[in-house]
Amino acid sequence: MTSRMPRVFCLWPEALAAARARLQSGDARLAPALDHLSAEADAALDQPPLSVMNKTQLPPSGDRHDYLSFGPYWWPDPAKPGGLPFIRRDGEDYPGSKTGSDSPALHQIAATVETLSLAYYFCRKPAYAEHAIRPDRTAPAATTRRHHLSGRGLCRLAGLLP
Q1: CB proximity list for 39: less than 8 A, separation 6 or greater
Q2: Residue 103: which residues within 8 A CB-CB, separation 6 or more?
């Protein structure tokens, strides 16, 4: 038996199916939300591919293809010269923790794929699905886009680790 529910992992499939049924039945209350989603998806179609080569800091390996992110709750210690070693301030994101890393691009990719996937589910516009699964979004294979997910650069703690 085949399920009529969408195969999703982060949303409630029953809620998606119900919203789609309401849209198909002409529920005008959902039209503004669908228009907004379609506009976001159309804008996503124009986004250039993201590259792991654009980060400004090198991972510990020296290979720019390696994924790099920084622990967001680690701050320079104001009581120490040069702020080293960093100290933890739980719940407070250090503004510099996103600078120079792959983290913003990864979050942008995730948000774009979610938008395009939802837009395809509700609108059935093939371009949305095709763009969501572009190789540079899911498993970058091009030399300038591939990621190496080694554990050494996944969450660096500035001021604590080399």
Answers
A1: none
A2: 69, 70, 97
Q: What is the DSSP string of 62-116?
A: S-TTB---B-TTEE--TTSGGGPSPEE-TT---GGGSTTSSHHHHHHHHHHHHHH
- The per-residue pLDDT for range 125-135, each reduced to its tens digit, is 999 999 988 86
Which residue's entry shows tokens 């250039």? Answer: 48
Helix (H) / strand (E) element for 42: namely: helix 31-45
Q: Are 41 and 117 in contact (CB under 8 A)?
A: no
Matching residue, tokens 């320079």: 76
Dist CA 126 CA 134 (whole Å): 13
pLDDT tens digits along 14-54: 999 999 999 999 999 999 999 999 999 999 999 887 776 77
Per the CB < 8 A criterion, the answer to whether 128 and 42 are in contact is no
For residues 50 and 109, the answer to whether their CB atoms sit within 8 Å is yes
